[in-house]
Write the structure tokens for this entry.
Amino acid sequence: MEYRIDKRDIEFVLFEQLNASRVLEFEPYKEFNEELLKMVLSEALKFASEQLAACNEEGDRAGVSFVDGKVSLPQSFVDTYKKFREGGWIAVAHNPEFGGQGLPYCIAISAIEAFSGANSSFMFVPGLTVSAAHLIEVHGDQSQRSTYIEKMYTGEWAGTMCLTEPQAGSAVGDLSTTATPIEGTNEFKISGSKLFISAGDQNVTDNIVHLVLARAEGDPEGIKGISLFIVPKYRAGANGTFDVWNDVTIAGIEHKMGIIASPTCSISFGDDGDCRGYLVGERRQGIVYMFQMMNEARLVTGLQGVALGNAAYQLALSYAKERKQGPKVTDRSSEAKAVAIIEHPDVRRNLMTMKAYGESIRALLYQTAVRGDVIRHSADPKERDAAQDLVDLLTPICKAFATDIGFKMTELAMQVHGGYGYIREYGVEQHMRDVKIASIYEGTNGIQALDLLGRKMRLKGGGLFLRWLQECNQFLEPLKVEGHPLSAMAKEVDGAKNALAEAAFSFAASGKKDPEYPLQHATPFLSMFGHVECARLMLDQARIALDKLQAICDANGIDPGDDHARRTLAEKNEDVRFYDAKVHTARFFIYQLLPQVGGYLKSIKSNDRSALEVVL
Ligand SMILES: Cc1cc2nc3c(=O)[nH]c(=O)nc-3n(C[C@H](O)[C@H](O)[C@H](O)COP(=O)(O)OP(=O)(O)OC[C@H]3O[C@@H](n4cnc5c(N)ncnc54)[C@H](O)[C@@H]3O)c2cc1C
């Protein structure tokens, strides 16, 4: 199945909306220029469509094999992994001192969208590796940094994150894996079992560096007693070579609904009493360190959601242009011919829903990535603080909104395909199966909603939310002015923003008397927030697009308000078509999708406690 990705929209979001080239001012990026960033992006898109997409369907059919305790990926993945490494795609935005490419984070994120949309199963080994290595870079000691990072950033070794145990899923603090200090050394003996570990074993790297959460002997129960350990599959022997098996056993792999070519493993550590772990940072700080990895992984999981949603949209769009069924509803002649289904209003609505969500969520995630570059490298502490506040606030939305909507997009894409969507060879059902997991792992979307409402909204006495409100107001103010071409749309976004604030402030009051009440609305609140922020971003896109349209129309001597003249120009000028569609897409989002926010507010203000009171 051909993989298509909207390169024009990616470049628009990065360079016209978010001004990604601005990050080139930062010291580490000074040697790059916009042309180079665009070239890297083009190469990433090329690799995604030519290499990764080529083995996506085969991976889905072949799956992962588990024989004699060893896990093997499909052969096409083994071959493609070599090319992925050679291309330097593993650590695009990471430290060149350790073999990373050192490019801006926002460019890496757009590359990851392309890679995940083309083949999401493939991305587990490199994706977890780079996050694990980055955690060691930030929190490990000098010896750990020199031992592991370069080998991981270059893809010679892989990494995993090992939190989940059968009794400890969302409640990570209930884990029972133990770490016992080995006297006279800085090593620990690790003992316990982990479940559902992505890329827990494979046959493409020489070693695997598991980052394992465990409780060291004597440390307290719960989340506060957890420490983080590096537990390699092979540890160093007396001669320093990593060739001693570290008593890490793969007990089995899961048989899953989607991401079938990604190995999800049960791992036993220390069955023979000889599994060594090396403490990262300080004892009892494991969950803090792991959160760094999880926050990075949450953005990437959000990308997985929107990437597969966008890939499914592209399939649906092509299909809707080809598939003919029934005459156009406005053609009442007896000889009316069947038209492509894209002519039917209900199909158009489905397509526009996917397009509007897909483009706005892309902007939401890339905006977070650009802020990530600011946090890492801006010399201005105020700017860094502001960016950090907004990233902290919006990360649960990036993860949960993008993955819930990503799944919905694949479902709509299947609907556009009719019965053919349900058939394997059309590709869209694989996207739907593959994307579902993204709303479950990296903290379920329910847990993300609790994080937003119960934690992020309260941080700094509500200061993060107030900062966001202030920025939103500043953005809307000039657009709301009477006579501005976007005034009506800006007022709609303003109203939805006020509804969001009203919901937030009502929770502050109702939660004091009835703490369960706001929590039953945590998921709708996250969805409200996602809709408002995405509408704001779409309005911004419309603002830019209108300016560009004006300039092109001026250059061609036509009035941009003249629909006929503009459409005629759009037929020969791709930019006019793109910007014109952008304005329509923003309008569709604001008038067709954003009104859900009003419904959510009504339900929040209803004081209805039936879900809490019913006997189920
Ligand atoms: C394919 C796959 C890959 C995975 N990869 C990894 C990996 O690499 N590393 C790793 O450590 N784990 C991994 N996981 C595990 C994954 O992170 C967990 O499945 C997830 O965190 C949820 O835990 P659980 O399955 O035990 O569900 P539970 O925690 O039992 O949750 C069940 C339901 O209850 C809800 N819930 C639970 N507690 C609360 C609460 N306090 N308030 C409100 N709602 C709540 C949840 O939102 C969910 O809807 C993977 C899982 C899968 C299926």
In short: Residues 161-164, 169-170, 196-198, 256, 264, 437, 440-441, 444, 446-447, 450 surround flavin-adenine dinucleotide (CB under 6 Å). The CA atoms of residues 2 and 523 lie 35 Å apart. Residues 286-322 form the longest helix (37 residues).
